[in-house]
Design goal:
The chain is an alpha/beta fold. The protein contains 15 helices and 20 strands. Bound molecules: ligand BES, manganese (II) ion and zinc ion.
């Protein structure tokens, strides 16, 4: 799909589908809707007046052969209330347009930017949204393919607005949009295809394309380093573990400037191990590497966009299965950092692999750590599939993530990290155990990770509730969401 910016008047734009967002609180009596209604021969006013179209967020109304426009079809898209509009909504509406085009086989779509944001920023959001909406996971379908990739997505800016820089912002938006889809495609892959080895292979391939330094530690390397927490998780699987390391030097890493580490959980399948999970929804555990996918995708985008920060990405990749060699509840391992861990529950495996990856990131020189993981069911109970959990000791990044939600559309909600929560993971026999009681499960998981971060400012993102969307949205295919990629790129680009 080709994404192009244009400031030519929409009335003169030949295309299969012209998408025009309409606010709930505007009418055809005032510009700019008045101009659209005039150009389209009064049809907009009539569908609004008779109640056929209510411009609630994401609702649509299709008008064929609108008299006066060169577009074959006019798609009115509900934009919700204008004071609530944001770049995040612009992205969604462009996604609605792209998805509608896919389904209706209108492969040449034009989307008219709305809202008060500067045109270049709005155009970037629209480009990201177009790619998001155009994504479909149908590589395994041999029949009944019902939609088609768009050929062209035109982003139309108001011809009177200042649009210099829009082309460049679209290019940047397309980099981010493709990265998000890359993360989605990895998380959607079944676990028989996307093994730790295959994840490493894809990291090498993707890294090669964008000039990212990629290194993969093998089991023997990790044995030498003493990464026994990570290795313990992979023991029941025939698939060898991998520790994927990605490096960006940064344009101007100031002396003493923070050296960021992004650490993403890469469990390619989480059966629970010996503490095996119930069958229901276990298939979703193929996406237990969504955090790792977000790190890989964000790193490729950062390599393309450029960043002044020095950043390392670490993805501990393992498969968690039961078996004759599997770790047992009660086993004790010595972690890379030195602390001993009593593994009470083999299903609390994410924190084990992250513990070693985070500690290793510190020895590699990271002074600021962000980890992202589908870590706990407790986080889903607390926040549902709306907000991701956020915990940590880096107020600057926590605040930035909170602020950026209007730009990225990714919502994070902070949970507390009082030291009193640590009691729950005290072990009688080792330094620490890998589960607490049933209370505050998202927090005790974070407290476990904190033991391995040392004194570096750190933020933990629990994306267990938001990495998959089984309902689907008018702007998105069902399945993996790529949650986190936009936020990580927004923070560091
Ligand atoms: N990958 C799961 C968390 C998860 C559950 C993600 C559901 C997405 C949907 C994680 O490894 C896990 O199993 N966590 C356990 C921890 C418990 C044993 C302390 C959980 O949350 O049940
Ligand atoms: Mn688990
Ligand atoms: Zn897991």
């Amino acid at each position: 799909m080709n994404i192009v910016f244009h400031s030519r008047h929409y009335g003169r734009m030949a295309c299969d589908l012209l998408a025009y967002p309409v606010f709930q609180d505007e009418d055809c009596g005032r510009p700019p809707l008045k101009a659209l209604d005039r150009a389209a021969g009064g049809v907009v006013a009539s569908v609004l007046a008779c109640g056929e179209f209510k411009p609630e967020l994401h609702r649509t109304c299709l008008i064929h052969r609108p008299a006066g426009l060169r577009a074959q079809r006019l798609l009115l898209i509900g934009a919700g209330k204008s004071p609530e509009f944001s770049l995040a909504r612009q992205r969604e509406l462009a996604g609605v347009a792209a998805r509608f085009g896919r389904r209706a086989r209108c492969l040449n779509v034009a989307y008219f930017l709305r809202g008060g944001d500067p045109i270049p920023a709005a155009a970037r959001a629209a480009a990201e949204g177009a790619l998001y909406g155009n994504y479909e996971s149908e590589i395994y379908k041999t029949h009944d393919i019902e939609t088609a990739d768009l050929d062209q997505f035109l982003v139309l800016g108001d011809s009177r607005g200042r649009s210099s820089g829009a082309d460049d912002e679209i290019r940047r938006g397309a980099i981010v949009g493709r990265a998000v889809n890359f993360a989605r495609s990895l998380a959607n892959e079944p676990a028989n295809v996307l093994t730790p080895e295959q994840l490493a292979a894809r990291a090498l391939a993707a890294g090669g394309e964008v000039g990212l330094e990629v290194q993969v530690l093998e089991r023997a390397d990790m044995e030498k380093l003493g990464m026994n927490a990570l290795l313990a998780v992979s023991k029941g699987s025939a698939q060898p573990p991998k520790l994927i390391i990605l490096r960006i030097k940064g344009r101007k890493p100031r002396q003493g400037a923070p050296h960021f580490a992004l650490v993403g959980k890469g469990v390619t399948f989480d059966s629970g191990g010996i503490s095996i999970k119930p069958a229901e929804k276990m298939e979703d555990m193929k996406a237990d590497m969504s955090g790792g996918a977000a790190v890989l995708a964000a790193m490729t985008a950062l390599a393309e966009l450029g960043t002044r920060h020095a950043v390392i990405g670490l993805i501990p990749a393992v498969e968690n299965l039961p078996g004759g060699r599997a770790t047992r509840p009660g086993d004790i391992v010595r972690s890379y950092q030195g602390k001993t861990i009593e593994i009470i529950n083999t299903d609390a495996e994410g924190r084990l692999i992250l513990a070693d990856a985070i500690a290793y990131a510190r020895t590699l020189g990271a002074t600021r750590v962000i980890d992202i993981a589908t870590l706990t069911g407790a986080c889903i109970i607390a926040l549902g599939n709306i907000n991701a959990g956020m915990m940590g000791t880096d107020p600057e990044i926590i605040e930035a993530l909170r602020q950026n939600r209007a730009i990225t559309g990714e919502r994070f909600w902070e949970l507390p990290l009082d030291d009193d929560y640590r009691k729950a993971i005290r072990s009688e026999i080792a330094d620490i155990k890998n589960v607490g009681n049933r209370m505050a499960g998202a927090i005790t998981a974070a407290k476990f990770l904190q033991e391995f971060v040392g004194d570096a400012p750190w933020v933990h993102l629990d994306i267990a509730g938001v990495d998959l969307d089984h309902d689907g949205q008018p702007f998105a295919a069902k399945g993996a969401t790529g949650f986190g990629v936009r936020s990580l790129v927004q923070l560091l680009a």
